[in-house]
Amino acid sequence: MDSFEFNKIAGAFLFSILLLMGVRELTSVMFSPEAANPASYPVEVADSGAPSGGDAAGAVADEGPSLAALLASADIGKGEKVAKKCAACHTFDDGGANKVGPNLYGVISRAKAQVDGFNYSGALAGMGGTWDFETMNAFLEKPSRYAPGTSMSFAGLRKPTDRANIIAYLNSLGSNVPLPAAE
Questions:
Q1: Helical residues (DSSP H) of the chain, grouped into ranges
Q2: 66-172 has which CATH code?
């Protein structure tokens, strides 16, 4: 075997090793598992709504404080932080533009589905009425249950304190409706 034949065999062997290493590196870049980003926010999953105790008394005990009591102790600053989840689709500025969702400035006490220049889904457009504390609470808990067929894909806010905080924040943005008296 001459040296030219040996060089071809050695070159093929080295090329094969190089190719295998390259494929391994390429697949590790394409399919590398990464830890979850701690800056991301959790996706709220709605519960089944069934009381855990199985009786009516257990269901009443699990309800917790009334919305009026929660609003009385609501923190507007915490509501602003919770509202960051909404900022991907909504604006909060006076005269702000509509995004995927309508501008929410002055939404408390505003007629439902009445922002100029925004095309509402039929589910909300046909509802009528105004956004008060109770309706906003029900909508934020689970939009698809409050308005079946709504195009809002948000899962909702499970924690009553989060809902109260964001309602207080929304109320502070141009609405300033007096909060209901706690029992």
A1: 3-30, 56-63, 67-72, 76-82, 122-125, 133-141, 143-146, 160-172
A2: 1.10.760.10
